[in-house]
């Protein structure tokens, strides 16, 4: 129950703060496909989705959580709840939900029905970027939650078609992890339809490597 | 032999000339057809990676020949195929599909 309260709190804070990371762009243009992978030492995940509209996407999601020792595989639905477009900025609020199965690591592990809900938000200009994401999991055999926030700055303003670079700082909180809160400096590059993020977490001495490709 | 060569050349020219004229006539017709440049001013277009949707969405439109994104001005420049049309309403729909809000549309015909 306490874990669920923590997860609820994480989501509530997420709604109050607003913004995302690599997975903060879970909806593409109508007919667009996206594949994204995240690896940061605490977990590795891959998400492939298709957007039937400019506000929805559906796809497959698989995550191996190395800190809490579980594996989830299922279907994920993403909804762009609201978007605020201004002449110099854009902000987004996303709702995410997944349903599938999960199993703890181990030879005698049993598979359980599982699901998660999440909230993502972001705000960015061509110079500044802020994001937040919170997730709560019910894995059948246990519950889990994590949240992360980012701030970023672009050292130069590139034109359309240039290689774009962002310097970012991510704070991630996973209450069940051995080191619950970690800070990760990272660099984001994107060019055309490819996005790549490389970072390093000093506390845990782990590498962050995320990428996204859109079709 | 020389007669054969001259005959062959004459034969070739007699067929080649009309084709050349036909091509030239076709090109002249195409160049006289009006070609329109549409400039859509939009809100929210601050990210290159996300603005890729603009190229994809507008690029699928039959009337569109070329798409250019200007992040500095927040503008989408669309060159239409000669003689093709793209209404303001349709431009608005495509901008919305790309994830942005349309502010204004301007047209320039060359």
In short:
The complex is a heterodimer of chains A (215) and B (110). Chain A has 215 residues and is mostly beta strands. Chain A has one helix and twelve strands; from the N terminus they run αββββββββββββ.
Descriptive notes:
The complex is a heterodimer of chains A (215) and B (110). Chain A is built from 1 helix and 12 strands. In chain A, a hairpin with a 5-residue loop joins strand 2 (43-50) and strand 3 (56-65). By secondary structure, chain A is mainly beta. Chain A has a 12-stranded antiparallel β-barrel with strand order 1-2-3-4-5-6-7-8-9-10-11-12. Chain A starts with a helix and ends with a strand. The model of chain A is unreliable at 1-22 (pLDDT under 50). Chain A has a single domain (2-214), classed as Porin. Chain B has helices spanning 2-32, 48-59, 88-98; strands at residues 36-43, 64-70, 75-80, 101-109. The longest helix of chain B is centred in the N-terminal third of the chain and has 31 residues, at 2-32. Chain B is of the alpha+beta class and 110 residues long. Chain B has 2 domains: 1-32; 36-109, Alpha-Beta Plaits, CATH 3.30.70.100. Chain B is built from 3 helices and 4 strands, in the order αβαββαβ. A 4-stranded antiparallel beta sheet of chain B has the order 2-3-1-4, with helices on one face. In chain B, helix 2 (48-59) crosses helix 3 (88-98). Chain B is 49% helix and 27% strand. The A-B interface holds A 25, 28-32, 54, 83-90, 124-126, 158-162, 164, 190, 192-193, 195, 214 and B 42-53, 56-57, 60, 68-72, 74, 96-101, 103.
